[in-house]
């Protein structure tokens, strides 16, 4: 069976101030064309269809168009909700839509109930694990201490239990939206940390033939059988090194996996440039970036006059301007933001406690801080779900 694995469409999202709806529509056309031209038997979409719980009308219309075009092909599609989606909104009409071959899986309670498709070699069971916010699904799965690993492990227990009841040789595919250990993140994914831990081990998914992951925006293989498709379009300059693509997966009769990357069309290349303003304007090596979307980091010791206007004369698609003067590490002018770079909310809070009273928090106080952050994230998840 040939699968096309994609995720993280983020319909309705902009790239800085650039409206991406046209590029998203072009991607949908590319997806449909790939399904038709490459003999795809099933499409899997692993969450974050939309960029927010209440998407703009234009994004909903594009999604509606995608559903109709996929249904017209007669190729089954299995789709889950991600942490950016409203599971309840995305799942509206799932039963009716399923009759057209578009199978929406947005409820935690249905993790162990697969969509079963057939090819010449028998059945393939597709299990949809939507984004599982631990605080919201802990009761459903009966876990005492909510956490990503605990709820995903409980969901996978249901998958393996159902699979054990099926005919010998039944192949299996799991769709999941999570941060799996070993994955490379970018700046455009929303933080899903709970209990100080965001990532779950790939071993949670043992026992199935292929795991189609969503959430991280870079296409990558955690193992041969556990892969992220990544987002089809860039949504932050941290993705400048990404090759935007989908996975074309051939699932053999024995459950073997072969995978090929299918490139996605992107409107422009991304470029992250760094140096003094005069160097960026004069360096002939930078000519190749003149039509790219540009993030420029200026290292001038003194902020130059009209930097954006001067940059856009050479790089007309400059979208982001950052000032990072090159100074000695002990210079008091080193920015607060730089000192906080790559530090978690928990670490920043602990540093603040140490700064205020001269000693960092003990284990009990660390737990209090962690519980406070988890509570805030859970409250945000509840508000998103209620929208």
UniProtKB/TrEMBL annotation:
Keyword Nuclease: yes
PANTHER family named among the record's database cross-references: COMPONENT OF ATP-DEPENDENT DSDNA EXONUCLEASE, NUCLEASE SBCCD SUBUNIT D
Assembly and binders: Heterodimer of SbcC and SbcD.
Superkingdom field: Bacteria
Job description of the protein: SbcCD cleaves DNA hairpin structures. These structures can inhibit DNA replication and are intermediates in certain DNA recombination reactions. The complex acts as a 3'->5' double strand exonuclease that can open hairpins. It also has a 5' single-strand endonuclease activity.
UniProt organism field: Streptomyces lincolnensis
UniProt keyword list: DNA recombination, DNA replication, Endonuclease, Exonuclease, Hydrolase, Nuclease
Any one Gene Ontology molecular-function term assigned to this protein's record: 3'-5' exonuclease activity
Name of the protein this chain belongs to: Nuclease SbcCD subunit D
One of the GO biological process terms: DNA replication
Stated family: Belongs to the SbcD family.
Pfam families reported in the protein's UniProt record: Metallophos, SbcD_C
Keyword flag Ion transport: no
Xref: InterPro entries: Calcineurin-like_PHP, DNA_Repair-Maintenance_Comp, Metallo-depent_PP-like, Mre11_N, SbcD, SbcD_C
